[in-house]
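Morning!

As promised:
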Amino acid sequence: MGLLIAQLLTGLANAAALFLVASGLSLIFGVTRIVNFAHGSFYMLGAYIGLTLMNILPGHVGFWGSILLAGIAVGLIGVVVEILVLRPIYRAPELFQLVATFGVILVIQDLTLMTWGAEDQLGPRAPGLRGVIRILGEPVPLYDLALIGITPFVLFGLWWLITKTRLGVLVRAATQDREMVGALGVNQSWLFTGVFFLGSALAGLGGAIQLPKGGADLLMDFNIIAAVFVVVVIGGMGSLPGAFIASVLISVLNVFGVAYLPSSTLVLMFVVMAIVLTVRPFGLLGREEVAGEHGQVGEPERPIRPFGLTGRLIFGAIVLALALLPLYGSPFAQVLITDIVIFCLFAASLQFILASGGLVSFGHAMFFGGGAYVSALAVTYADTPMELAFLLAPLGAGLIAILVGWFCIRLSGVYFAMLTLAFSQLIWSLVFQWGEVTGGDDGLVNIWPAAWLSDTTAYYLFTLLVGLGGIVFLRHVIHSPFGYALRATRDSARQAEATGIDVRRVQWVAFAFAGMMAGLAGGLFVFSKGSIFPNELEIAKSFDALIVVFLGGVKTLSGAVVGGAFFESVKDWLTRLEYWRLVLGLVIIGVVIVAPEGIVGTARRVGERLGLVKEGEGTR
Amino acid sequence: MAEPILEVDALHSFYGKAHILNGLSFSVGRGEVVALLGRNGAGKTTTMKSVMQLVRPREGKVRFGGEDITGWPAHRVARRGLGYVPEERRIFTDLTILENLEVGRQARREGAPFWTVEALFELFPNLSERRHNRGKAMSGGEQQMLTIARTLMGNPGLLLLDEPSEGIAPVIVEQMARTILRFKDEGLTVIISEQNLHFARAVADRAVIIEGGEKKFDGSFAELENHPEIRDAYLSV
């Protein structure tokens, strides 16, 4: 009994920081509709700044004052980010904002590394609250009790601010209809900036207040962001009470999970989220999201066209040059291009579901890695011949996509993205923690291709054939009647339904197809490397693909291919730089603001302006 | 006409590539009530939004109180004393009636009637009874009253009412007409867009008829009576 209560109290104490961070994120989303991925970075900054201040300021006042000052400092950093990065793109489509905030994460990571170094830092203990108290015989840290005591005040303070003040009324009104609030004489820009200050400050407070329990390290941004998103989505995006309930739920479950089901810890919160979203698609206390409700409608899509003669000729020339590479290129070049083609196919499959389907998947790596693992498992445990095992990759990934899709396509927008993220995290944890079967962190090795493909050149040509074939096939599907139906569901689900299109079924099939093609890329990958590790299933892998699609140009399949080729080729060179994250982050932010159409879209626009390409013609 | 408070000068507005306003010009005198008439799609709402700068005119000027407000952000236009009541009403359904009014609140303005919450509740007693209710469960008429009251909280000198009589019960329409006449008595300048000629004639001093984003008629209702061909050509009566 005592142990149970002690664990419950630990859970509640952990909920304090989580709630602070989550309420900030929820607040920012509610008003600005921006899903701020960099929120975890603000939390990390809060910890580092708080730590630095605590080392300078002594005593009780110094400790608590440092926490407050850290919150204010992070709030001001948030304001800088809002003004420089987000203001120019408030009206851009959601994906652009997501990618921009992702760029901010990378920049803050490297700036933190520059300022505070790579060492993990231990937090000081709170003066006067260093000891433990025994509750029913179990030791409970005094600081935990202090945190439990503070949380209700924070919740009450926020509740008061939101329900009782003019600022709160304006915030709630803006959550519903920003334009109308503006037409009534409220300067939205400053309202947004104010909300961003408050939200970021809450994240900073969360980072500083957990110092005595957790300290500060460079991974804490990514470590908390998954949990925070889960909390905000479970609670309902934009709902503070929802965030509170979900923080407590997740924190307490986590503590009990660690104690009684240690192997479940990584999966537990995602399982809870999947269950909640399946039952309540908009979270516990969330409000239905309607696409386009907030004026974030991008430019109208250009109609797509088949390649013109020039396009075909260029494509043919590239294929020929690649096919003849073994005659003039080194084996290293063949390996590099093998990697590039595989990545391009993966990115193209994501672009397909994202642009043609309008379904922003955050977990696309689960199909890439999933397909690879299916092949690898078949080879490892059933001695399946490579030819058959290779085919199992797209089939297995397709099957996973059918299952996952059944849950996900009921949702839309941010909730869809979050549920795909949850499932990919679930599959990753499954592979990571089920070591007896999957090899866990050690992965599966010795997955080599059949004898006739074992030569580098042979496998290169095989990859070229299958990879480019897959990309052409994707293009073909986009231009087929099914592709038309899919784009109809993207542009207006209601009208599509009214014309007799079974929207859910079309989206489901498209999702499964995209998963299958990602699995095909995964199959090519595993046999080219001879091994597979869980990191191919990680969130980071999904984000690589998202960034590539984005950098290349969201709207065109060729954009994904060009972006993939570009990214894979510079990756080697880039990651050798000491502060490559800073560079990549700034490039991403720059692209979002300056050239939101990506490499291909911008090239075409420039071409049109110079009269090289006729308007509307070109490379789809 | 009294000294003009609003001048719309050769306005061209677009939605994407669709050319909605085609060199529209008209002006409104201080204290006047002007009705913008025309069929569905004639450009009435776009005119209102272009005056408010919710739609940015691509060419032409909007002057308010002699000052060029073209290209200003909408909140600045509102702060200068233009009040906009949208056709879709757009009340904040998650907020109570009192909170809806709070969003619209601005400081007292010289040369414009000053409204308090209590004065508005006197004007719209229905709202008073439900002041703590959320905007969700309200009838069309109550929503319309709330939007008007919300805009008046900004103490505007010029009120833009987009189709105030649409979708509300006839009894309420009559009440609405009396309310608008009362605004006029208080010295407020009002532009209403209307399809209901009868309602427009009851409240407005002057009619401006637009069609295809161009002005087709500008004059008194008596003049309009004398030109039934204009009425038949541009209004669906």
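Residues 2-32 of chain A form the longest helix (31 residues).

Hope this helps with the figure draft.
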